[in-house]
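Practice set, problem 2.
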Amino acid sequence: MKEAIKKAIEHIDEASKRKKIRVISHYDADGITSAAIFSRALQRWGKNFSLEIVKGLEEQYIESLPNDELLIFLDLASGSLNYLAKKGVETIVFDHHEIIQDIPENVRMINPVIFNQEPLSGAGVCYLFAKELSDHNHDLATLAVIGMVGDMLDKNLSKTYGIILQDAETVVKRSFLLYPSTRPLDKALEYSSNPYIPGVTGSYKGVLELLRDAQIPRKNGIFKALYELTDEEMGRLITSIMLRTNSSSKTEEMIGNLYLIKFFNKMEDAREISALINACSRMDRPYVALGFCLGNKSSREEAEKIYREYKQHLVSALRYVSEAEKIAGNKYQIINARDNIKDTIIGTVASIVSHSPVYERGTVIIALAYNEDKIKVSARIAGDSGRNVREVLTKAVINLGGEVGGHPEAAGCLISKENEISFIEELKKVLDIDLVKV
């Protein structure tokens, strides 16, 4: 892939002398960090460019793009190659998602999937580009770490990520996976959404009861941060949480690495920064997140304000999910939130629910939310192993029309609102049939 990146650099350099560069990136944490890395690298390179952050690539949007510019896509477009082929414009794609279509002649693809390399996030791919471009771009490695944890690629670290973590001078510590690990524990637990802890998340009274049971006292009126706990305190905390989730079998999944990074000259939890970036996008403010990633102080203040508001939305959404009637089958659950949850956070809600110890490993979680005249659908697999949810969605929309994207363990699609009932019926059929096959 290194040679492909070198050729892409040559291509961009040559094309920039005869046409404008338009960079288009995805609006999640991985996409925003990809955009920050790539734009900073281009800026230092002295290239003029425009940048857009988008939720997804619909055919109509691609058709609307100019024909006289070099198009560069970050963290998306691997599932839109047919549209790009029809467009016929000179295009470079820096992505990491599954490729299910032929790569057209007008598209240069930089994707670890086609080079049989270890998995990387979009930000990881963009960092390799920036690093190849100049050694002065090493400081962008921190953003690549944030993108990595944002795309949940931190459990099985590759050799490449080992190098990126070194470049970013990341402190790695084994711990219970609760963030922010750098803030007082009571606040981290109260707003904990991943994992979602029944009776604790959203309840300060429940938080105090849990910490009392875990024998974790205040010191000078303040609770320790997670990363400051002793091994004994960590053990008691994990036991108390497991008792409330009724699932000691999932303890292993809830233990992992904390990634502590230097951000705005302060030690931060990469997961928390990733969640903050993601929150800005889910609240329709992706450019605030971009400014935050690029070190803008006023963007940081605005991003933190948005994050507080987002967490309130998220706690309300999780409360709705816990109380709402669901469509349940054997090893699947469909949550039709309609207009009770914002379409921009339904994917996050589905992810949180799928990581809840309440669900058996391999359970398919599919959540739906209205998006004007369409429905946003997000599918996840509990425990990150089981049926390919991207295939499930593809089979369900094949006769209805819809655009599916994502990974085998986390995928999404957009369908017309008028197909709501038909889609759910198709979904149930596919899930029941696939279960029989399994």
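Problem 2, part (b): a different protein.
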Amino acid sequence: MRYFQQHYGFTSKEEVLNHLGCDTRWLVFGPRGKKINTVDDNLRADKTFSSIVARPLGGVETVEEVQERFCPQVSDIDFPDFKKERELHPDHAIVFCPVWMPLFSGACNAFGMEEAMINLYEAPELIDAYLEIQTNYAISVFETGLKNGGAEYCDFAWMGDDFCDNRGPMLSPVLWREKFKPHLARIAAVVKKYNIPLLFHSCGSVEQFIPDLIEIGVNGLCVIQTSANNMKLADLAEKYRNQIVFWGAVDAQQVLPRLTAEEVEAEVLRNMALFPSGGYVVANSHHSMPDIKGENIEAMCRAVTG
């Protein structure tokens, strides 16, 4: 953002997105009183949710304690005016993007990661209690927002969870399918009820879970972290082309920070060539961190728009 401010004098995200020719607008919303980037936010880097850093369930020993300490309410969500956002952006795809409500990584945030991992084996009833509350909360957020304009005025819905690092899963895939997949499927079913395509964020080495995501109704995997094991876009295209859309794959760890603008353009063109009939959305493989070169973001978009 500093790059675009310094080079072009832009003072809002909207100016940057228009300059780059971005097709989408992410409508991010969450609990009242929290700082969140929305479609119209200016250049601020203060989006923080207390749930990301707090450990409300650290040290709990009973299901009753989980229920007492962890009780998110849909009434706290500050839902946007979806119709107004559509009027402001008639020619863009709007993404319905509620506050981060993950299951596995949410449990790691709530209990503390080490404690959550131990509880999965030694006190699974505590994890089950958390998952039931978090899932019901997510369902309420999606149901309320989509019913009250989200489905009518937005083009995609977004949800996500992180359960892999660059090397592979952070827990047994068998355990993930037993504990977490059924809850994700419940949330996805609510979204699909409104006939809106569903994007799912999960970074890291998630290749072995892509069939599971397809099974529960995910339409697009967002993002594709190509620097992780088994996440080369050519391989994913060969295995899953026409089954799920791939969103991302312009690497934010190596390509965008380290390569030249010409090399970035070449990378994007190679990615696009893998999907001659569509099924790929050009984007960063993750957030634009400070080490990413602004000129490389321009190069990534220029490769698409010419």
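Answer key, part (b): The chain is about 45% helix and 10% strand. The chain has two domains: 21-209, 219-306.
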